[in-house]
Write a structure and sequence with these properties.
mainly alpha, 2 domains
Length: 79
């Protein structure tokens, strides 16, 4: 997502259009990108650490973007 202090013209355009389309009360619209991927790692912590490093070093521009790592459908533990 764009950092909160960075202008988001696409989000502003959507926010201004919503009331005219009958969607009242929606504010603070922000538009970002979503990256999904699969990976193999020994455990969830290792997977999150690897993805976080990839976001910090390659997948995002830290000057203007923030990121959140979320595991979806992590494999079940054998324990």
């Amino acid at each position: 997502m764009p950092r909160s202090e960075i202008s988001d013209p696409q989000g502003q355009t959507i926010e201004h259009a919503l009331p005219g389309l009958g969607f009242e009360g929606m504010t603070k619209v922000r538009v970002g990108k979503r990256i999904t991927l699969s990976l193999e790692a020994p455990d969830l912590d290792a997977a999150e650490a690897l993805v976080t490093k990839a976001c910090q070093e390659f997948l995002t521009n830290p000057l203007i973007e923030e990121f959140e790592v979320q595991a979806v459908n992590p494999p079940k533990s054998d324990t």
